[in-house]
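step=encode ok
step=design start
structure_in=
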């Protein structure tokens, strides 16, 4: 699965669109990156840019943008309402999909080191990427702003994490960090009262509300010995919120920023705002997501609401997202289109390459039957494995809904989730097998006029052939994993569906054996005999085990039918 990170650099220019475009043009020169948003502000003289992509490509795009900002922005002449200390003031990286915060921090450090070394100006790391606890808070790192940077750099305790401890007047400094995804969301209320919406916002936001003497609304705000207001914390960590009235919709909303969705997921915020609104005689009628969100935000929400209904979580991604949309009323004010609101879907839309798994059954069959050598047996094997996993998931889902088995819903839900995961992994291998074949064809098409070209071509062919051997072997491994699911469903699943699990066993065995044929023919073309011998040996063991599992499971199925 592709790793994705988001980058949200803030540049100290919010008025001159020519300058801003020169910077964002640099981002768009990098393949594998999509520019999502450019938000200039004249009062702050600052532009917030958002782009997303695969990690290496994102930090390359960030570097090019930072470099261009050094050339076109002069901090010695900068004025603006927002705190700042550099041409590129901050540059946070945000994990979006299939990547941990720890991995994201590594990329932030890699970017920071390169900026300091190649562009030769001060770089500080903050938030999760901070190299010392004192520098975790951005406000502390940026204290003194640009005007105080020269004095700051002269102090040993403020030596930059990367780059020189010297003032570069035109450029200033940059803070490069890693943080969690920020979700901007509005909760719709069945009221027009801003004051009541604010009351709910103060109930839930982390900061809470001021503590007052006597009357909690009109009483005098209490202060501590330092003169700071004493606050009553709200119930949701990592959130900021206010209440407001929206003329466009004619309702009040609780407007919230969730600054860390790992601490407070969207669905938990929705549930808590709903509870607090009900305590005050109001109702949340729906939810409005502002901007884009990672897919996991809605997947986690959909699974949460399915679990509350004691329904299986092992259903398709589309169904899970549909449950999330309906449960939180994301389509309350206007239609909610996941293809336009989920980051991963937006990126997928950019990839216009034809995918086998997106075809109809008829289209896939016709494509296979055409004169083209791909898709071939490898893709078909992966698809048979996907169908085996799908049949296992189907039996698990039917079992979780079987009358009289209500208390077992969670047991079967876990099996169904396993089936869905295997199905998705095998579907990915359907197209990956064809892609591997195409890599071999591309390698054979390389020039071979000189000795150097011949050597490069030979190496490319071997590399592509090795990969084309590894892909069907992965299909073997994943298809074999479906036997555990199918065996469980034959043994403990809905007895009315035992033959469906049996068909799954047949498909799983065919997937393993079919994929092994591809392993063997591709391995025969490898000069790395040690690699070929190892993968063929492991493949032979898996196929023998698959033959045995197929026989055992079919015996179980027939015994259930006869019994």
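sequence_out=
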């Amino acid at each position: 699965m592709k790793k994705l990170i988001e980058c949200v650099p803030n540049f100290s220019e919010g008025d001159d669109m020519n300058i801003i475009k020169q910077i964002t043009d640099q981002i768009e020169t990098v393949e594998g990156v999509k520019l999502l948003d450019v938000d200039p502000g004249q009062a702050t003289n600052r532009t917030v840019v958002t782009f997303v992509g695969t990690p290496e490509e994102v930090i390359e795009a960030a570097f090019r943008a930072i470099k261009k900002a050094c050339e076109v922005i002069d901090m010695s002449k900068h004025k603006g309402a927002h705190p700042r200390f550099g041409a590129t003031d901050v540059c946070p990286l945000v994990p979006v999909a299939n990547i941990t915060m720890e991995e994201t921090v590594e990329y932030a450090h890699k970017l920071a080191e390169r900026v300091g070394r190649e562009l030769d100006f001060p770089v500080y790391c903050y938030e999760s990427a901070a190299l010392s606890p004192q520098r975790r808070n951005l406000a502390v790192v940026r204290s003194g702003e640009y005007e105080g940077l020269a004095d700051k750099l002269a102090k040993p305790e403020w030596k930059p994490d990367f780059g020189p401890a010297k003032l570069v007047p035109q450029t200033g400094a940059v803070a490069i960090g890693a943080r969690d995804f920020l979700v901007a969301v509005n909760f719709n209320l069945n009221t027009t009262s801003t004051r009541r919406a604010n009351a709910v916002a103060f109930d839930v936001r982390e900061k809470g509300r001021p503590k007052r003497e006597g009357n909690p609304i009109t009483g005098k705000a209490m202060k501590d010995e330092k003169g700071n207001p004493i606050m009553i914390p709200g119930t949701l960590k990592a959130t900021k919120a206010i209440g407001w009235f929206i003329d466009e919709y004619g309702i009040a909303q609780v407007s919230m920023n969730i600054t860390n969705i790992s601490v407070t997921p969207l669905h938990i915020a929705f549930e808590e705002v709903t509870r607090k609104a009900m305590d005050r005689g109001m109702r949340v009628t729906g939810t409005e997501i502002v901007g884009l969100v990672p897919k996991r935000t809605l997947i986690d929400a959909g699974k949460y609401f399915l679990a509350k209904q004691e329904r299986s979580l092992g259903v398709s991604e589309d169904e899970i997202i549909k449950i999330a949309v309906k449960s939180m009323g994301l389509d309350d004010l206007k239609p909610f289109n996941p293809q336009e609101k989920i980051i991963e879907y937006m990126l997928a839309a950019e990839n216009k390459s034809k995918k086998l798994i997106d075809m109809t059954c008829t289209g896939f069959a016709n494509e296979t039957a055409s004169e083209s050598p791909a898709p071939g047996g490898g893709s078909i094997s992966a698809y048979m494995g996907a169908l085996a996993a799908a049949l296992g998931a189907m039996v698990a889902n039917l079992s979780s809904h079987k009358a009289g088995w209500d208390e077992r819903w969670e047991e079967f839900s876990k099996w169904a989730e396993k089936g869905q995961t295997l199905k998705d992994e095998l579907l990915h291998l359907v197209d990956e097998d064809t892609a591997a074949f195409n890599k071999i064809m591309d390698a054979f098409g390389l020039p071979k006029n000189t000795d150097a070209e011949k050597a490069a071509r030979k190496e490319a062919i071997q590399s592509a052939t090795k990969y084309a051997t590894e892909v069907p072997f992965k299909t073997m491994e994943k298809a074999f994993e479906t036997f555990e699911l199918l065996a469980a469903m034959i043994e403990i699943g809905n007895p009315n569906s035992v033959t469906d699990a049996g068909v799954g066993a047949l498909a799983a065995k065919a997937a393993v054996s079919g994929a092994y044929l591809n392993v063997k023919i591709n391995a025969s073309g490898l000069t790395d005999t040690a690699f070929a011998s190892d993968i063929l040996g492991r493949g032979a063991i898996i196929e023998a085990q698959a033959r045995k599992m197929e026989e055992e499971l079919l015996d179980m199925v027939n015994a259930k039918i006869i019994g």
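step=design ok
step=annotate ok -> The domain at 183-348 is CATH 3.30.70.670 (Alpha-Beta Plaits).
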